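Lecture 7 notes: from sequence to structure.
We start with the chain below.
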Amino acid sequence: MAKVLKTEFEYIRLKLIASTGRTTTWIVLNKNSNSRIAVVKWLSAWRQYSLFPDFNTAWSAGCLEDILAFINALEIQEGR
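Predicted structure tokens for the same chain:
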């Protein structure tokens, strides 16, 4: 049984918006305003998931740690 992927954090949440069957694309939302602040998606050139922050967004160390934890869990879940 696959472990449930954590998508809710203190200040951000991630929402699945697309799946190719091999990879997924997630939007990162600010929990306070519910506005999109980034996208997490597969970057073929690097062969890993990466964060694509929206223009003019600021990221705390804690939020970056949450994104790192999410990407690590996502790659484990997908067997990468």
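Points to note: Helices lie at 61-77. The mean pLDDT is 94.
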